[in-house]
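Page header: ASSEMBLY MODEL / two components / 768 residues total.
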Amino acid sequence: MNNFEYHNPVRVVFGKGTIARIAELIDPSEKILLLYGGGSIKKNGVYNQVMAALKGRDVREFGGIEPNPRYETCMKAVEVVKRDGVDFLLSVGGGSVLDGAKFIAAAARCKADDPWDILTGQYTPKTAVPLGAILTLPATGSEMNCFAVISRDSTGEKLAFGNPCVYPVFSILDPETTYTLPAKQLRNGLVDAFVHVMEQYATYSVNTPLQDRQAEAVVRTLIEIAPDVLEKKNDYDSRANFMWTATHALNGIISCGVVEDWTTHMIGHELTAFFGLDHAETLAIVLPAVWQHQFDRKKEKLAQLARRVWHVVEGDVNAQARAAIDKTVSFFHSVGMPTRLGDYHITESRLTPVVERFRQRGTVLGEHQAVKADQIAEILSLCL
Amino acid sequence: MNNFEYHNPVRVVFGKGTIARIAELIDPSEKILLLYGGGSIKKNGVYNQVMAALKGRDVREFGGIEPNPRYETCMKAVEVVKRDGVDFLLSVGGGSVLDGAKFIAAAARCKADDPWDILTGQYTPKTAVPLGAILTLPATGSEMNCFAVISRDSTGEKLAFGNPCVYPVFSILDPETTYTLPAKQLRNGLVDAFVHVMEQYATYSVNTPLQDRQAEAVVRTLIEIAPDVLEKKNDYDSRANFMWTATHALNGIISCGVVEDWTTHMIGHELTAFFGLDHAETLAIVLPAVWQHQFDRKKEKLAQLARRVWHVVEGDVNAQARAAIDKTVSFFHSVGMPTRLGDYHITESRLTPVVERFRQRGTVLGEHQAVKADQIAEILSLCL
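Prediction written out in full:
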């Protein structure tokens, strides 16, 4: 096991009727900025629950934070925070709104000339506006981690940052808020959570039997509950299990002391930046290609995945590892998720600028630092 | 899944050479009281590592905290904390020293006339002296929770309390500190961790597939690593896996949203209080008896345990659940742990005052609130 540090101070409040708890979780004296996305919270009753709980408080609103939250939008919210002296950010929505809130929280206290430096790594935040979350979409794990991904229109970039000062003070997870989610977002959430686990698992072993089993626990549960999540609209149990399982896919527990990859995410972010695909759509395309390309380096863990999650018993390590790739693709298809660039009519010629961007940045990816621009080009060819 | 709240702010620093990190984790201005047990830390080099890291700091010492830490001893440390204006408690040792430190931390800020009220529940701490831990014995999980168990000589009682204000600020887990542990303490730690999981698992299902698998991950790993833990003296990997697995047995993750029991612990505490058995020794005796006595209420989860952990495939639910009890007893025996009161020459007549104490307290135990003094008497008979 590798040395590690684990510190996750998020207070998770989970279950039916828990939105009302914000009344005690936010200090009555604080000036609150409510952040949300496209307005679905005003249709599904969540907004009303929030405002009822905050009755009499100083609350202002900032809506319109996009999926793949845009830097330009976030900076407008930063202006509001600074102008009005906002003390607390309350994110109500999915991982995109929450990622936006994390960036806004850090940018509002940022001393660099351009808060974009937080995302390029040129500026490290030391403090942020305190934030809390009401999660309505199980997928990203953002509710129990300190990471955020932000896109910038003017440059077509999509970059991530992580900093302990943007851990939510609390995250409220009420599974009933997911009842009105469209099928596409449920599908995306299942795939996103699945791939999060794999980025922390499908590398090479450093003798971490507990963490391996904890990771397998997450993906086995995702696979098991997926049909009910997609088919049963108002089923509390499957939504509750989905919500808590997606949180565990990226709350730091399964990455303690293990070797991580994140190649799929880094390539996927660019596919979103260039072609506008949903985040999860890019992951379902790239993950199987990364596994094929890095097969010899990953096959031991992939074979273990096949044996433990899909009970594959026949064949040698190579055959079992190939089975893991096939079973993963089948799982993605079973939830209605395409796994090819061709499914989105993206052809080879359009990939050149994607590879060029990685080449210009001098990107080096993967647990062996073996995936550079040339390898990314090969991986993308496997995605066609 | 039941509603739940999860908030665990402990900073875990895990791995080789991490003791030196206390230099940055404790503010240089703070007056430190170093708490330890019987002095093994002065023989195995841990004390020297601690003092080297704290060179130049204001450090005083309080040694002699017992296994099953005594109220009387802890109150002497409380006097030192108050007299010298100690700002920070540093616990160096196993779960007993740390449990003592937690009680000392709360008692030193306690406004009740008698800090024992913290343990009887008549006083709820609002604040405590900040504390950190260097763990040298994987077993209790105290390093990543806010619970403590304290014994009182004058009354022969052993009581537990839990309060968020006694979460360690940090816990340092360096597996190399366990190399000098005697076999008995390793055995005790394996059993203690195993039973912790079972108190949170072997009840009845409220549809928590992730938590079930996370719990199974812990016990499967314990069973898998036990031979190496006991036989390989300086094997880093097995000790590292033991340390992290024991932490996960009682850090609150596997209890999120599930139904818990704790009957075995409550009865076991009294067996320690009356007969001086080690904590883990009592658990290994009581757990199988509780399962036999509450068989019909627990058999579904026990059968799942048998299928998933020991791959039992034959028989109906009753047969599989009985297999889980047999396999558990075999596991205890395999690590050298007795499972009968008779192994300690404790006969039926000596159990009467134990039952009487439960009767006087009006104790009600178990996930169905179905275990009272009469049932405890029956369970104890099954332990003979």
